[in-house]
From TrEMBL:
InterPro entries given in the database record: Glyco_trans_2-like, Glycosyltransf_2, Nucleotide-diphossugar_trans
Top-level taxonomic group: Bacteria
Family annotation (Pfam families): Glycos_transf_2 (PF00535)
Name of this protein: Glycosyltransferase family 2 protein
Coiled coil start-end: none
Organism for this UniProt entry: Algoriphagus taiwanensis
Length: 314
């Protein structure tokens, strides 16, 4: 019933954990498509230790930023109509696929589903913010508007390793933005999917673990602090057609743009082009503050503030 796509680039220390979490699922109706994205460590050796006919291993010769090309390639090999994504350094809870199947069969109109997750830093576990927005172990049908509002309020309902989508819908939006961005492509993909299907399912039960202490993480390595994909997507969308939700869509864009600006300043790699994409008509105060970031001294003060806040995830 499910095709599970696992992209991998140099994740050898974590592969046993992620694949074992699939093998330990209480539902056995799945296939795994493991796409090695030109790893230079022992990732291939690790995955080949598993002997299960449901596991297929493919290799790409040139790695793609963010694993987007690897995921898209994996989807082309998928035999089942439902696609699940799992990063090679994350893991699932044992009943994840069983719960998904139950909700899919109960809600036939659903084409795109997210589930709650937890974040692990190797020492502590913290549930995602969305879990506080709904009753425990409940399933909800959210409109595109609700999807936007939850994300804007820092309670997104979709995370890559607990996202599930129908294959034909994924193909309709042209999948992940390979070649268009080096990071943040997941957020862009979820936005385009949510805008396409209009109704998003959310299962409020922690179904997976996001390990932020993993090796070779995209969120820590090789960031270019470019204009986020989703910001460009929204700019083009609003040029092409009108929307009743234009105010919320702009807010959604501003949220991820501001996060990118903060990350770039914290890394001392500020990209002034980012400022051009802020919708200042929504918040003149923030717009005025952003303009001051053209001055190095003020960016330095803000960087000191950010360093006290801790790390960004997602």
């Amino acid at each position: 019933m499910f095709s599970i796509i696992i992209p991998c680039h140099n994740k050898a220390p974590h592969i046993h954990r992620s694949i074992s979490s699939v093998l330990n699922q209480s539902l056995g109706e799945w296939e795994m498509i493991f796409v090695d994205d030109a790893s230079t460590d022992s990732s291939l050796e690790e995955v080949r230790k598993f002997e299960d006919r449901r596991i297929q291993v493919f290799q790409r010769e040139i790695p793609g930023p963010g694993g987007y090309a690897a995921r898209n390639f994996g989807v082309t090999k998928a035999r089942f109509q439902w696609i699940c994504f799992l990063d090679a350094d994350d893991e699932w809870k044992p009943n994840y696929l069983k719960n998904l199947k139950f909700q899919i069969e109960k809600n036939e109109q659903i084409q795109f589903i997210g589930s709650a997750w937890e974040v692990s830093d190797g020492t502590t576990l913290k549930a995602c913010s969305a879990t506080n927005q709904f009753s425990s172990s409940s399933f909800h049908l959210l409109s595109f508007e609700e999807f936007l509002r939850k994300s804007i309020s820092n309670s997104p309902v979709v995370w890559t390793s607990t996202a599930c989508v129908k294959k034909d819908v994924f193909e309709k939006i042209n999948g992940f933005p390979e070649g268009d961005c080096k990071s943040g492509g997941d957020i862009d993909t979820w936005f385009r999917l949510a805008e396409q299907v209009k109704v998003i399912g959310f299962w409020n039960e922690i179904s997976g673990t996001y390990h932020i202490d993993s090796v070779n993480m995209v969120t820590r390595l090789g960031q270019t602090f470019e204009v986020p994909c989703v910001v460009k997507t929204i700019r083009n969308l609003l040029k092409e057609r009108e929307s009743d939700l234009v105010h919320l869509i702009k807010k959604y864009s501003n949220k991820y743009l501001l996060a990118q600006i903060a990350k770039s300043i914290k890394a001392n790699r500020f990209n002034p082009e980012l400022l051009e994409y802020f919708y200042g008509d929504l918040d003149w105060k923030k717009n005025a503050i952003l303009k001051t970031f053209k001055f190095r001294a003020l960016r330095g003060l803000y960087r000191q503030y950010l360093e006290k806040m801790g790390s960004f995830y997602g």
